[in-house]
């Protein structure tokens, strides 16, 4: 159970300061990173997955804590301003050149034709070859001397290129997936992204673990901030909750529930994914009869995605129940009041299965959902009574019309 209010306040405040310091450190990652060496080995090595993830987030979201002008500009504006600084200072800064520029191959070939071949010492005149997806080779036709360059750096301790990881991370942030990236690349006459199996491998082995780590740290920081604004009391927090599904209606096999803080700046405190189907379990059924041993091995040695077997409409209720139950072991916090809609069984579930001993959960009705349901019922009642004589003296039917129930346009 949570500790006393005063003790927990000091504990949470200390944790909040620690985590904020960690976040501040990563916000200043670009400015505090040491100047890179100009050696070829350093130029071929990119940032780690975590650094890349952080940098991408800060380039695609507005900064809330910095007054730096560059943080409030789009990426293209940042590139232009960086170029102007380099031009004015006449200094080539390797860090300021750490970005990608889209260029047509014909212009690279034109550039090479204005150089001297180091093999034959004559003006270069050759061809360009694409050896691999991220490698180009320029071969002189006279002496056959070849210069090979890479178009992207390597991610340390991996076999993947920086550009591939950035494209995939950008696809997730934009919510388009590999198919969407392929369409964009096709329109821009750029070679397609990595193959589907490699795309899934990057997701599973690199991006997903990193995202989960930062998801936990972000929600933990949100809890600490929430507790601080609640006078340091983690035992009496008011949250808002809601659920959504992959598909509309009550037949979706995937759903998600989430709770948010009710403070000055609402933040996501926790999320719960619920699935009634596992792709691996379904695929293993194809070998269940032909190779029972393989089937058993697959079933027993995979992380099953299926964690719910009830109705789709009950996903929100179960998800919120799971989130409430783990609030104490994960964050030493208790959600005693919540703002929710009236179209789910969350309150009933929390009442029948209390997440906290001897503590009653209080529900605050969401006025927007309440108004929507009231409007729906009034419209339905108006439709049902439209042919019913309710005022014989004035010979008027129904409850609608002038000086009666009307729908505001």
UniProtKB/TrEMBL annotation:
<dbReference type="InterPro" id="IPR049012">
    <property type="entry name" value="Mutator_transp_dom"/>
</dbReference>
<feature type="region of interest" description="Disordered">
    <location>
        <begin position="1"/>
        <end position="46"/>
    </location>
</feature>
<feature type="compositionally biased region" description="Low complexity">
    <location>
        <begin position="31"/>
        <end position="46"/>
    </location>
</feature>
<protein>
    <recommendedName>
        <fullName>Mutator-like transposase domain-containing protein</fullName>
    </recommendedName>
</protein>
<feature type="domain" description="Mutator-like transposase">
    <location>
        <begin position="134"/>
        <end position="391"/>
    </location>
</feature>
<dbReference type="Pfam" id="PF20700">
    <property type="entry name" value="Mutator"/>
</dbReference>
